[in-house]
Amino acid sequence: MNYLAHLFLARPTADSQFGNLLGDFRRGVDIKEFGQAVQLGLKNHYEVDRFTDSHTSVLAAKALFHKSRRRFAPVALDIYFDHLLIKHWASFTTQGFDEFREQSFALLEQRLPTMPRKMQYSVGHMITHDWFEDYAKEEGIAKAIAVVAKRIRFPNTFHLAVDDINANRDEIEARFLTFFPELITHIKINGPENI
Predict the structure, then answer these.
(1) Which of 5, 30, 91, 184 could form a disulfide with 1 if both were Cys (CB 3.0 to 4.6 A apart)?
(2) pTM score of the predicted model
(3) What pLDDT, in 10s, does the model give residues 5-29?
């Protein structure tokens, strides 16, 4: 899952929000320097990814991408699933999306000074430029995917993943609506922060 989903599945504390995003910035970081709450958030991130990567609906959605882009399908789906989470937000929580975003950004800002440098840059950029506002719009998804495509260090056609999404939008959405409630339930029962 992408940043929004990880934050949504975290606890509403600065350490949990930090830990739940840390999984994407873990390489080369000694996690022992962080407290227990951050480490539990990191474990929660890994549990979300494990469940997501093995879920039949997610696997079926990945198979919808063109063969030449399938290796990038998980990244494209992560971004698009954040869009679908915003679109169906009221189905999953009574908290308003704008309230959640402001709360989450404020909590993350509390931990910015202790984040690994690469994470500081990305999270700071996410907050300053409000990536979730982009994720809420279809055209924002294309923009986010284009940015990721430029960061890939070898020639690729990842930007064309937008075409795969557009061609299969209804099925991907249906797969998400089957998968995401099951992920929420799984984390409520099995999430390291909830055990």
Answers:
(1) 5
(2) 0.93
(3) 999 999 999 999 999 999 989 888 8
Spell out where 20-179 has E strands: none
Determine if residue 130 is left, alpha or beta; phi over 0 gives left, psi from -120 to 50 gives alpha, anything else beta: left
Taking the CB of residue 124, how many other CB atoms lie within 10 A of it?
14
Please tell me the distance from the alpha carbon of residue 28 to that of residue 117, in angstroms, as a whole number.
11
Phi, psi of 52 (to 5 degrees): -60, -50
Contact 110, 12 (CB under 8 A): no
10 Å CB burial of residue 115 (0-12, 13-18, 19+) is buried
Reported as a single tens digit per residue, the pLDDT across 101-160 is 999 999 999 999 999 999 999 999 999 999 898 889 888 887 887 777 667 666 666 677
User: What is d(CA 99, CA 120) in angstroms, rounded to the nearest whole number?
Assistant: 22
